[in-house]
Design a protein that fits this description.
By secondary structure, the chain is an all-alpha fold. It is about 85% helix and about 0% strand. The longest helix has about 45 residues.
């Protein structure tokens, strides 16, 4: 099931690896989309706004699991690319230890801090009870969410992006059915939507473990695999926690922005929730390309295939720009009818605000595409400093929009926050990537010289 990404046409390999990630991302966004639509249609705009009011805090801690899992997969992919399967299994063991610690931390912090933070954000009183319940259920189930993300990252590190897709589809289909059961039939309210997600993720974890035990012998950990070499646990913790903190730093800006949205009233909260769900569904392909390039670069770094890294990133960047332009056009044309699926009839003010958000964001998708490709390429090389700086820049720009643009511009300030954050994050990433590009060129030249020197001399013909 594993796949070597160090051979073949770089762009063709990346596209083939990206397609299952894309389908998986679309399914993941689809079930978030469906959850929100069911909540809005069956429970009303206030329930939809309650989910939205808790969204930034949900992203702050649960988003940490996505970033941390991707970071934990990088040393695994590098070891696999170099052919050192013993080191690969030790990095899997190290990642499992780090994942367990992260899950415990998220559960404790989320349960203790979610209520006070919701009040600090100025959540409207009529939304507090539902938003608190939604967050509490989610954080108690964070262990299942972290476990699934880590297992998926491990399998993808071996070049297999299809297997995680199958389990994600299973999770999505089960989640949609459970959401409708809990909310539409059992009447559990918004807490039922969170519980459905936890149960579906736990089911996917169990299925993934069974598959690894039966069909992926290279990932079966033995006793000696838990005897880590010096620095291996520290490296896994460094890459995992750094990328997790990067996602959380970005989310802090979203928290500040959410506070500004809350002050605009329930209609603005509902509009932002609906528009962000549509936007997340639209940019899933770009996020998939970013995840693929990280694994591609990590494997080729392990194999010292420097030219493949440089060429693969450049060609992927061009393809992602074209894709971003097409996505933007589709969202401008179809975004508003999709928003109406969330709020139903009789909410023209909410639909108009969401339309404004989508048009502004869709026009600037090429900037996001550049950020995702280059930042993930740098992370695949093992660097953590610049991506963290980029995350901090996103925090500053997104928070600045919430603090200084929402009051004078109203909801337009909310719509401008994400594009401004993309621009802020891209600035250090561009500078860093050009520096890495020249280093890769230098390594290519040195490798070529060594190959020429080591070749035996040609003998004259007899």
């Amino acid at each position: 099931m594993s796949k070597d990404l160090t051979v073949g046409s770089p762009l063709r390999v990346i596209v083939a690896f990206t397609l299952p990630l894309l389908i998986g991302n679309l399914f993941q966004q689809l079930y978030l989309f469906t959850d929100t639509a069911i909540v809005g249609q069956l429970l009303g705009v206030h329930a939809l706004a309650a989910v939205g009011a808790s969204g930034s805090l949900h992203f702050l801690l649960i988003g940490f699991t996505f970033g941390a899992s991707a970071g934990l997969g990088i040393p695994i992919a590098r070891a696999f690319g170099s052919g050192d399967l013993a080191a690969m299994r030790r990095y899997v063991a190290a990642g499992a230890m780090v994942s367990a610690g992260i899950a415990l931390g998220i559960t404790a912090i989320g349960e203790l801090a979610s209520g006070p933070l919701l009040r600090l954000l100025g959540t409207p009183p009529e939304l507090m009870a539902s938003a608190t319940v939604f967050l509490s259920v989610t954080f108690w189930g964070s262990g299942a969410i972290m476990a699934f993300n880590f297992l998926a990252a491990v399998v993808r590190a071996l070049g297999d992006s299809r297997t995680p897709l199958y389990f994600l589809i299973l999770s999505c289909v089960l989640n949609i059915g459970l959401v409708y059961l809990f909310i539409g039939v059992l009447g559990t309210g918004v807490g039922g939507a969170a519980l459905a997600t936890v149960i579906s993720q736990l089911t996917a974890v169990l299925a993934c473990l069974v598959l690894i035990a039966r069909r992926m012998p290279q990932l079966r950990l033995r006793r000696q695999d838990w005897n880590l070499q010096p620095g291996e646990l520290a490296e896994s913790a460094r890459t995992g926690l750094t990328m997790g903190f990067q996602m959380s730093v970005i989310a802090i800006g979203a928290v500040v922005l959410q506070s500004a949205i809350n002050r605009l009233g329930s209609d603005a909260v509902a509009a932002a929730t609906a528009a962000m769900r549509v936007d997340q569904l639209a940019v899933a392909p770009l996020a998939s390309v970013g995840a693929a390039i990280s694994t591609f670069v990590a494997q080729n770094r392990g194999a010292a295939q420097w030219w493949r890294i440089r060429v693969g990133v450049f060609r992927t960047l061009l393809a992602s720009w074209l894709f971003a332009l097409v996505l933007g056009g589709v969202i401008v044309a179809l975004g508003t009818p999709v928003v109406q699926l969330f709020v139903g009839e009789g909410e023209p003010a909410v639909v108009a605000l969401a339309h404004q958000y989508l048009v502004i964001n869709a026009a600037l998708y090429p900037i996001l595409a550049s950020l995702l490709v280059l930042r993930n390429a740098i992370q695949g090389l093992g660097a953590t400093g610049v991506p963290t700086i980029a995350g901090f820049m996103e925090l500053v720009f997104r928070a600045a929009a919430g603090l200084f643009l929402v009051a004078p511009l109203g909801f337009a300030g909310v719509a401008l926050a994400a594009p401004l954050a993309w621009i802020g994050g891209l600035l250090p990433v561009l500078v860093s990537w050009f520096a890495y590009w020249w280093r890769l060129k230098g390594r290519e030249r040195r490798l070529l010289v060594r190959e020429l020197v080591s070749r035996p001399p040609l003998l004259p013909a007899a």
